[in-house]
């Protein structure tokens, strides 16, 4: 039995680790932001995931936060679009999960569209690569995609170096995928349906991996390419790789119900 029962998705005997996906806003961007040199515009989903483990509830990323909320029925005022009711806490409440029950947040990195919702989970410990923590707290003056008020909240941090098995049972394995930021990380989730890799921004679009295409901005392009090669290796071994901002891929993923 799960440590926290989910009313709209009750566990069945034999259920293992379950994964739920949520849309937590959108960003309207040039495609070149994700694929260097590519023309056109894209309305990209902002994504977050709940991992239902028998030892407790875990989030992978928390999406956009309260500073971007617009009232229902109004038009977005910038390229960031977050309607009232679409934040990760509201998404969880809609399936019967109390945000106070979430015990762990794995942040792929601390950019505002991946850590903006951290404030909704006061009882959670934030799991982050130490190099990402150091950069985000001490070296972000020139990077507006970090907003320190969204992640300097008094919550405890578990600062890790390299690969980390969260529960020691191989079901949630966090591993560095550097390049987008100095301490970017991804996670491999072992579900009953097979391994799923949550990539964060080391793979924003499916084409990023299929074509080994880098975005128009990288902290370190060589590390970024190495991360794509690692994801490709995992995919060849049978893992399903989930890009973080791909609208076509995301349309194929069920929301608010178990994925695997």
UniProtKB/TrEMBL annotation:
Pfam families: Lactamase_B. SUPFAM superfamilies: Metallo-hydrolase/oxidoreductase. Residues 45-245 form the Metallo-beta-lactamase domain. Its cofactor is Zn(2+). InterPro entries: MBL_superfamily_lactonases, Metallo-B-lactamas, RibonucZ/Hydroxyglut_hydro. Belongs to the metallo-beta-lactamase superfamily. This is MBL fold metallo-hydrolase.
